[in-house]
Design a protein that fits this description.
- The chain is of the alpha/beta class and 396 residues long.
- 41% of the residues lie in helices and 18% in strands.
- Strands 7-6-8-9-10-11-13-12 form an eight-stranded mixed β-sheet, sandwiched between helices. Strands 2-3-4-1-5 form a five-stranded parallel β-sheet.
- Helix 12 crosses helix 15 and helix 13 packs across helix 14.
- The chain starts with a helix and ends with a helix.
Length: 396
């Protein structure tokens, strides 16, 4: 975030509702001349519609909260930036609970003028007071032969199932103690999302159909996306299911994990996998009491999304799967190197659990940096010169 403020006239802070975007924007503006305005305010929103230039002239530097509620304002921001003689960085902070780059009604991307930052739900490290995501930089920066000695000292063993139930939204994860209170919070969150947030993005007449599709996606967590099957099970047209899935992604409730497509010798799956940005919300919507191995995968991927935001070069987060069923849960592509990660909810990983990592090593060739088998046990051990088995809680 601070890097973007140093470089661009406009910083767009996006992410799911209730992840702390407003709190962060106000914190960064404390003690400065930056004026905070929210488009949730009817008066501000009306001025954005009728007198956008006057709104931007109210202060030399502005925070404009929930800017997706007045998408046409972005054109005036572009004019204001271009009219300045030096394009001074840090002039505007825009926050939004929708991905402006994916919204149909947004025609102005502020290309070259804005840096985009996504604030995802809190990671395990953030919930424990560590201002960082997992030890992914260590795994990428060091050769596999040194991983055993350079990985962080083992943290206390954690129950990933309890972590999945808490999720990463600050209020239920950090402030609410009982499951009953968290259930009440998530019920209110879903209702607000359906009745307000989604309606701001697109007119949806049958909210029940949208809710049903959300439930089906939650029940298929981590599965390869089959839009035709989802549409059939939800009794929706293919076009409507496609539109609803895009709305869920635009509002940062779900994200698609794209397949790695670097193999020329094997036929690989080309459809993305679908995950939720918050495991606790996915469990609530699916009405599932206990997490599964897919939720552990989702926890790791949520941590990786936050880590990705911290890297200037934006690493790719992918998966790999062939039509014969050989797969790797996560492939990190950074600077020509490929780090493969397999995730198992077992406490006693077997040698065969790394078969996918070894198969991917053959496909990746010299780009293969190393492989990591994350598991729920306690032992860290070398499986080969470039593959290691390590407890998930030692990385996250």
């Amino acid at each position: 975030m601070e890097r973007s403020l140093r470089v661009f006239p406009v910083t767009v802070l996006m992410g799911p509702r209730q992840t702390g975007k407003t709190t962060l924007a106000r914190h960064l503006s404390a003690g400065t001349d930056r004026l905070y305005l929210t488009l949730d305010d009817l008066e501000v929103r009306e001025q954005a519609r009728t007198d956008p230039a006057g709104l931007l002239a109210r202060a030399p530097r502005l925070v404009l909260d929930e800017v997706q509620r007045a998408p046409d304002l972005l054109l005036e921001i572009k004019r204001a930036v271009d009219a300045g003689p030096d394009r001074k960085p840090g002039r505007f902070i825009l926050t939004g609970s929708a991905n402006l780059l994916l919204m149909d009604r947004v025609s102005e991307s502020l290309a070259g003028r804005a840096g985009y930052v996504t604030l995802w739900p809190m990671t395990r490290g953030e919930l424990e007071g560590r201002a960082s995501a997992g030890a992914w930089n260590t795994l990428l920066d060091e050769p596999p032969g040194r991983w055993m000695e350079v990985l962080p000292e083992p943290r206390a063993h954690a129950d990933w199932r309890a972590l999945a139930k808490r999720g990463g939204y600050p209020v239920p994860a950090h402030q609410l103690v009982s499951e009953v209170d968290r259930t009440t919070w998530f019920a209110g969150y879903v209702r607000t999302y359906l009745e307000r947030d989604v309606q701001q993005l697109a007119a949806i007449e049958q909210l029940g159909d949208f809710r049903l599709l959300m439930t089906l996606v939650s029940l298929r967590l981590g599965g390869v996306l089959n839009q035709a099957e989802l549409a059939r099970d939800a009794a929706l047209s293919h076009a409507t299911a496609h539109r609803y899935l895009n709305l869920m992604e635009t509002s940062f409730q779900t994200f698609r994990l794209q397949p790695f497509a670097g193999s020329r010798t094997k036929r690989h799956v080309k459809s993305p996998k679908l995950y939720w940005t918050d495991t606790a919300l996915a469990l609530h919507i699916a009405r599932e009491a206990e997490p599964t191995g897919a939720h552990l995968e989702n926890l790791v991927l949520a941590d990786l999304l936050s880590w990705q935001e911290s890297r200037a070069e934006r690493p790719e987060i992918l998966y790999w799967r062939t039509y014969d069923g050989t797969e790797v849960d996560v492939v990190l592509a950074v600077g020509g190197r490929l780090l493969a990660v397999e995730i198992k909810a077992t406490t006693k990983p077997r040698f065969g659990d790394a078969d996918g990592l070894r198969a991917f090593r053959d496909v990746a060739g010299p780009r293969f940096h190393g492989g990591v088998l994350l598991h729920d046990g306690t032992e860290t051990r070398t499986l080969s010169e470039d593959i290691i088995a390590v407890p998930w809680w030692r990385i996250l």
